[in-house]
Amino acid sequence: MEISRKVLERCPLFAQISAAQAWQLLDELNAWTRTYACGEALVLAGYENHSIGIVLDGTIEAYKTEPDGGQLMMARMGPGGVFGDVICGSRSRKSPVTVVAATPVQTLWVPYARVLSGGGSPAHILFLQNLIALLADKYFSLDRRLELLMARTLREKILRYLTAEAGPDSVCVTPFTRAQLAAYLGCDRSALCRELSRMQRDGLLEVRGRTFRLLRN
């Protein structure tokens, strides 16, 4: 199976695994690829999922539907992103979120049962170790997301998000549009735009498109 070397380098599941080893391992695991049109669902909330998904090309978004019918964005991933891994390891294997192709997408699917029952080659052992490390990282990422959503005000949510994502220069370049950022923060788009304007007026931020510079906390 020929998968782009660049995608393998981006994907945490293949850390310390050479491209040649990865291609051989994927053949052994009976992995397969599939393409999706923009807007097509890859995983549906409430349904079981038995394979780990890896984004090869394009962008996916995961949403959780709220009781009032609104949608809360849980994640957005590009090439190298891994999804479905947490679901596969659960007892019910029913997805709490719906994963949708935000653009035309190509994905790689790896059967979870094969990952657990395969041989003990060095590449396979590394793959399992990387999977465990990724699950741990996602736990702490979810904890940080919960802290963000628990913030009492929209301003606090924005500051927490930008502070966590900004580099040493206090600059954050978000992958989100305003509507997507609002969905990620769990707020209305117009409310987000109003608060960003207030924060610029108060000297907290400089905003240019998707680039945010924190001026002071």
From TrEMBL:
Source organism superkingdom: Bacteria
The Cyclic nucleotide-binding domain, residue ranges: 13-106
Span of domain HTH crp-type: 152-217
Record SUPFAM superfamilies: cAMP-binding domain-like, Winged helix' DNA-binding domain
Keywords: DNA-binding, Transcription, Transcription regulation
SMART domains in the record: cNMP (SM00100), HTH_CRP (SM00419)
UniProt keyword annotation of Ribosomal protein present: no
CDD domains: CAP_ED (cd00038)
Xref: PANTHER family: CRP FAMILY TRANSCRIPTIONAL REGULATORY PROTEIN, CYCLIC AMP-BINDING REGULATORY PROTEIN
Protein name per Swiss-Prot or TrEMBL: Crp/Fnr family transcriptional regulator
